[in-house]
Specification:
The chain is of the alpha+beta class and 187 residues long. The protein is 50% helix and 27% strand.
Length: 187
């Protein structure tokens, strides 16, 4: 129990004490919630600048949506590494490995693969490959669904389907993967 003198003092400073507790609560929320988010945002803006996509003087000043930014960041590499892998066939090989692995997991029979060329531009590399496969239509659709959810920026440029039997289709696919370049040499 509080003495009557302490009770009077407590009532006198009740508003100040309430404000101090509220201020401490806001400070704690800021330290636990908002500061980490601000640091992630600053890091993302810095990485966008490396990709050449940050807001620039005279530009629109708009920042990419977080999911699109994450997808672009996951599909980017240092410009020197992209140039080396593109010249040695490493990018095409990686795309072929990813697509044939997904095809095999979906029950699609891979009949032929052809690593295409790699088109280099200052900020992005386009990796082209050709695939020929045989499967049931549902297996092919499952493969395309898994390919779209793979986290890689892969475009299906061409898809030709020929029905061998009522149950089987033969597919010819042309795929392009986009790999963004980062670093000062990408500008």
């Amino acid at each position: 129990m509080l003495s009557p003198a302490q009770n009077v003092r407590l009532r006198r400073y009740r508003v100040a004490l309430g404000l101090a507790v509220t201020l401490a609560g806001f400070h704690l929320a800021n330290a636990l919630l908002f500061e980490p988010t601000a640091r992630r945002y600053e890091r993302a803006v810095r990485q966008l600048g490396e990709l050449g996509l940050g807001s620039q003087p005279g530009g629109s000043g708009r920042v990419l949506p977080p999911r699109l930014y994450r997808l672009m960041a996951e599909n980017s590499r240092r410009a020197a590494e992209v140039a080396e892998l593109g010249a040695t066939g490493g990018l095409a090989t990686a795309l072929l490995e990813t697509s044939t692995r997904l095809m095999t997991e979906c029950g699609v029979e891979v009949m032929a693969t052809d690593p295409g060329n790699v088109v280099q531009s200052p900020r992005v590399a386009q990796v082209h490959v050709e695939l020929k496969a045989r499967a049931r239509y549902a297996q092919l659709v499952t493969f395309l669904d898994r390919l779209s959810g793979s986290g890689k920026l892969i475009e299906v440029d061409r898809l030709n389907l020929v029905s061998d039997t009522p149950e089987q289709v033969e597919a010819q696919l042309s795929l392009t993967q986009y790999v963004f370049k980062t670093g000062p040499e990408a500008r």
